[in-house]
Amino acid sequence: MRPIPDTAGLSHLRNSEDDRIFADTFVDDSSESVDFARMVMERLTYGATPSDVSSFLSLGDDSEARLEAWLNRQLDWQNLPDANAQSRLDAAGYSTLSKTTGELWADHVRGSMSNWPQRYFPVTEVEDARFLRAIYSNRQLHEMMVEFWHDHFNVYGRRFEIAPVFSAYDRDAIRPFALGNFREMLEHVARSTAMLYYLDNRSNRSGGYNENWARELMELHTLGVDAYYPGAMHGQVPIGSDGIAVGYSDADVYDAARCFTGWTVRNGHGQLPGTPEYDTGEFIYWSPWHEGGQKPFMGQFIPNTGQQEARLVMDLLARHPATARHICAKLCRRFIADDPPQALVDSAAEVWRLHWDRHDQIQRVLRHILNVSSLTAGAGQKVRRPFEMVTALLRKTNAEFAPGRWDDWQPYGEFFNRFQQTGHSSFEWPAPDGYPDVAMRWLSASSMGQTWRLISRMPELRMPDDGPFLLGIHDITLSGLPQASQRTARNLADWWIERLIGRPVQPQRRAQVIDFLRQNADADAPLDLTSNAPYGSWSGNNLSAHFTPVRLRVAVSLIAMFAEFHQR
After folding, report:
1. What is the tens place of the pLDDT at every residue in 411-445?
2. Cα 386 to Cα 36: distance, rounded to the nearest angstrom
3. Is 214 within 8 Å of 256 (Cβ atoms)?
């Protein structure tokens, strides 16, 4: 355990005199290997654990070698062993994660599980599995990229029509391509039943086309709003050196929508044949609904080729310079800083374009972005969103977390109810732009307050009938400080600050935790954590012995509310 001295101040991470959590920028002065290792693990995983840091340090002789070796493992995610996470998923008994779209439709839309709550099991189990993977998976970077793409291709998973098929969207459209090729993922998203319902392309047909999908495809998913030319007609948007318009107008949106006419769902619609194979919930290209004819699009002409027209549109968008800039800016914002360096965005965009048709395109871009200098320069400039706050606490406390279908839904009913109130509940952002990824959105009094409410409650959540606590705070403490004489208020505070944050915190905050733990005892006097555990005993005449194990758990939750813990 590295000692955290009373004189620990703002020299390690500082921003003039302001409290760090409200700062615009931060400066990291540390050059120690362990500090770099922890910084990388906090930034590129769902929370640095001691084993994460020690494993990273074993990968090479210097920071560059270690980072490269770690990225090699994480980017080759399919070959990275993940037995612990998989065994926990298997033991949880989730029934919908492996169902095909047709099976989900048959069971949860047309079958006996089409009403509450079974209709919502697919999206609920994806959320459950999301937590399990974030906490226990070795494939941490892949999981972070799955979250990134769910925000990028946002779908409101709790919608009545979407919830029954959401597990297929997560499994088939997002997860396989999160570190692969954007163009390939784009088509799987476009064909997914969840997206076809969410942005209404299922009803897009000749003579009455629906532009919702086409507009968000260009504004959010590819080119970005910065490439939009409002009011321009065909021929009025400048043409780039590649012969393609540098941006798009409403006219391009309308013609993209025409190219996607006929991309719909086998949902038993009255204009589809009335046989069972047309009511499976799966994608279908229904040519009678397609609008024929050549279509102008961004300075090009899309020939009359039926279903292939939409694919030509996606090809053009996937390789467009504006798409590269738009998505690379979001990637840099996710991993480097809320306001990332433009030079890094531009150079990443070049890598994106150069490899737009490669199966490992996204991996190559991440290798470019996630380098020692960029990560070091961006240290302290990202704030954890509520999901990251919660999963970091779960990881750092050796949590036993296995949400499932419990009769009384405890303790997970309380957990998920409180988590929903943070504003970051899984797959519940209603607008197509996805959850924001900047500090300003998550440092509001409402979001922070609700996140703190959950964190303050988490140490006391336990399974029914005096079952185990979700967080392993008591056992970790006894293992980390095995001698009773070591368990002083000062040592307990320092040990948990080191485990949760790993660097000095403001002296006032540290002192408050020590005072809370010691009560009327000396800061270096041992505290009894074992008598009548896990709650301790009433001792109104000696507050230092008053429900001491409970006080320890509260102290851990207090540290998890520190400004320093908010930083990613």
Report:
1. 899 999 999 999 999 999 999 999 999 999 999 99
2. 24
3. yes
